[in-house]
Amino acid sequence: MLVAALVVCALTARLGIWQLDRADQKIRLQQQIESRHAQPALDGAGWPRAQAGDPSLHDRRVTLHGHWRHDGTVFLENRQMQGRPGFYVATPLQLGPNDAVMVLRGWIPRDAQDRTRLAPLPRPEGEVTLQGRIAPPPSKLYDFGDAGRGLIRQNLDLAAHASALGLPLRPASILQTDPVAADEAPLLRDWPLPAVDVQKHLGYAAQWFALSALCAGLYVWFQLIRPRLQQRRRAPA
Predict the structure, then answer these.
(1) Chain center to CA of 217
(2) What pLDDT digit, counting tens, does each position of 184-234 carry?
């Protein structure tokens, strides 16, 4: 019983320490994101193609100039914003010859009657300037077979899309953060920040430490205190 109690106490205490460590990692991640947001915005020269995939630049603000490649627009479905299902609108922005980056221009709601019916969006021509944040390529969801083809897609393979367009795409994406113009409705750009969930990890840690203390308390009660009390009650007066 002693060995079993020690094992359970040690295991649950270790799990509590692990949750505290996870909480500390999330706090440092949040501080890192806030620090990057506070840095000056990069321009095209400050974000060279050779550094496009550098994770240390994720969450940095950028100001980019280029031309939209509307023929490369895709709608990533099953994406939520403000708790509603819809699509992320992704369009390549050509920064220069043989240089482009996929821009998540915003989110539009899904038609409740026909998921393939898409709201019309403006198609600006000529050079545009946009504000955004550097991000990894769009996250991948589980898909079935052909969910990566056509105008509406579950996921976006940047390499395959670049090959189809005949235009190299940087191994990153941009979350556009410009205020939504009147002619861009119903686009939304309320991009969620990475979840840090510090309180969740602290709560889990408290539960694991409580279980460790409970196991120790039960052992002390049933193996040490209770037998002695019973012996005293059986002892002759």
Answers:
(1) 41
(2) 888 999 987 766 678 899 999 999 999 999 999 999 988 888 888 888 887
